[in-house]
Give the backbone structure.
Amino acid sequence: MIQKYKNIGIKLTPQRLAILDYLDGNKSHPTAEDIYRAVSMKFPTMSFATVYNTLQSLKNKGVVLELTIDPDKKRFDPDTTSHHHVI
């Protein structure tokens, strides 16, 4: 998995790798809070800001899509191919 993300231009820290690992193949369109809860089990000192900032960097690099299905919560999709989202 590391090789897949080496060329995206962000520093691959253990926390970021854990976020990428969580997202890899994830079809649930998790929120930043969902990802934080899951990844913070492995990295309890990690902040929510780390997750949010990583997601924004990944979005800017085109690695994840930011979905606004629910206007109150942003969701993230690691599948950047063209596909539909049904509510």
Q: What stands out?
A: The first strand starts at residue 65 and ends at 70. Strands lie at 65-70, 73-77. The mean pLDDT is 85. The chain has four helices and two strands.
